[in-house]
Amino acid sequence: MGYQQNYQQWVNEPSLTPDLQVELQAMADSATEQEEAFAAPMAFGTAGMRGVIGAGINRMNIYTVRQATEGLARFMDTLPEAQKHAGVAIAYDSRYMSQEFAHEAAAVLGAHAIPSFVFDALRPTPELSFAVRYLKTYAGIMITASHNPKQYNGYKIYGPDGGQMPPEESDRITEYVRGVTDIFHIETLTTRELRDQNLMTLIGEDVDEAYYQAVATVTIDHDLIKTVGKDMSLIYTPLHGTGRIPAQMVLRNAGFEHFQLVAKQAVADPEFATVPFPNPEFAQAFDMAIDLGKQSHADVLIATDPDADRLGTAVWAGDHYQLLTGNQIASLLLHYILEARKQAGTLPANGAVVKSIVSTELATAIAKDYGVAMIDVETGFKFIGDQIKQYEETGSHEFLFGFEESYGYLIKPFVRDKDAIQSTVLLAEVAAYYKSKNMTLWDGIQALYTRYGHFAEKTVGVDFEGVDGQQQMAALMTKFREHQPTEFAGVAVVQVQDYKTQTATAADGTQTPIAMPVSDVLKYVLTDGTWIAIRPSGTEPKVKFYVGTSADSEAAADEKLAAFEAALHAFRTEA
Fold first, then answer.
1. Domain 41-203 belongs to what topology?
2. Pairing outcome for strands 373-377 and 351-356
3. What region holds the Alpha-D-phosphohexomutase alpha/beta/alpha domain (predicted)?
4. Which candidate in 94, 98, 116, 146 is catalytic?
5. In the prediction, which pLDDT does 190 show?
6. Contact 183/64 with Cβ under 8 angstroms?
């Protein structure tokens, strides 16, 4: 059906909730709004789904949430009884409709006699991942739109290992989701029926305590915290999200006594009233933390996004607070882990670090210096989780650290997704390490540049909103494939890595296979070691462009970065 027919079907649906009826009436005279909401169903992929809250098949609402859960339930109906009855852990963040969506998911699962274990209040995404492993459920559902604006919400599915559902299972679930054509008459149970039949269990402090005990193992040098960390001044903001209670708890448990919350941002507010975007990679997210930091002369400012899987920081740089990039934070964390374990004599001979293919090569240089393997995987933390699982099964490596440039880090694998709570307590310890040397974290990253070379990276996202956004994104990727650039800013391309065709093509035409899953990503390697990558976002209507380069000085690295960014923009926009 066309969008007009889909829209009219919703208008005529007698069971539609009153709030959605009002929204439908409001868009009655807007063909554009109707088309965006009803032209095509919401994309459901390996990362689940994410979109604007509202009426329509391309919106987050109770009906699309029921549809997604019905797909998961039908898939679980095909499993052995023991796996099916292991159930599903469910958590949610502070966004509008998050709790409602979580309980709707439980209601659909219950109709299939699948038990659910639902948190009694908002919790971080990493704790949901932990809960799947701790409770030994078959799957997990996290209701969150991560760092997106307030209009959004989302739905993520996790597998038995606590990582995002593997591609094979995810593809099957997607098929079942698409097979649910009547989204208004999906069977559900009431909360009373769920509880009476023991199909819904509320979880809370029992899982919290186990998670906090696990996070306590992240700390490496307890004496350092006792002597330096306990007096260090920290500012923390959860940006109106789920991190407030767990971050305070793990900092206090580790021995950090002098930390302050940004009070106005400690409120779990779905409006995210004090920030334009609840995203710790944006400078505006730190405005209030910087004001408080200046008043208290804080050593480091830490922010986590609403579902507390991403972490950003601003550090004192002599006369102002300087935001660090996700690559810089990861490099500081990695170097500290390897150095501390080397000094303690616990650095394994088969250690491995895992990063995405669009993350900094500074980390590769650090790992090489310490005799540790660096493994590159495709973008998406599930691929880091897959490597961890492989190491556990084969014993080939010991996982030491994993990260993505997009402000996501994992220190200990009792969680299988990026974990800003773990990262908060370790970053505080790293800050104490440099403070013990009369250095700041800013001094620390400069020291790494002096030792390994000045690395510079930049990510630029180009939005493609509207109903034809996906087609425009696909057309852009096709343009790069059909008109392959041979140079950027006068520097020749020596290899093109196409993860869609799984081939790496050298300048002379020689091809070698890429042993990674199929993904719509292009990466160009240049003669000077610079790399440029292009990929459509898996969670937002945008194409991301990445540039990574290095030089002997900061100024030279920044100059190269600007030149490559300009060349990339010129190629992208030319007719």
1. Alpha-D-Glucose-1,6-Bisphosphate; Chain A, domain 3 (3.40.120)
2. parallel
3. 42-178, 215-314, 326-452
4. 146
5. 97
6. yes
553 is catalytic: no
The residue behind tokens 């409709």 is 97
Q: At what angle do helices 420-435 and 244-254 cross, to 10 degrees?
A: 40
Q: What is the pLDDT of the chain when averaged over all its residues?
A: 95
* HSE-up of residue 515 (Cα within 13 Å, Cβ side): 2
Say whether pLDDT at 575 is over 50.
Answer: no
Q: Where in the chain is the domain with CATH 3.40.120.10?
A: 41-203, 212-452
The C-alpha atoms of residue 161 and residue 81 are separated, in whole angstroms, by 18
Q: How far apart are CA 537 and CA 47, in angstroms?
A: 11
- Tell me what pLDDT residue 159 has: 96
Could you read off the pLDDT of 544-563 as tens digits, one per residue? 999 999 999 999 999 999 99
Q: Does the domain made of 212-452 have the CATH classification 3.30.420.40?
A: no
**Domain at 454-573, CATH class:** alpha beta
Q: Which of 130, 135, 128, 126 is nearest to 105 (CA)?
A: 128
Sheet holding 200-203, edge to edge: 49-52, 152-158, 139-143, 88-92, 116-119, 200-203
- Provide CATH 3.30.310.50 ranges for the chain: 454-573
Asked whether the predicted pLDDT for residue 181 surpasses 80, the reply is: yes
Summarize pLDDT for 189-236 with one digit per residue, the tens.
999 999 999 999 999 999 999 999 999 999 999 999 999 999 999 999
Pairing of strands 200-203, 522-526: unpaired
Q: What is the pLDDT of residue 46?
A: 64
**pLDDT score of 540:** 73
Here the tokens at position 240 are 């109106």
Rounded Cα distance between 239 and 243, Å, is 8
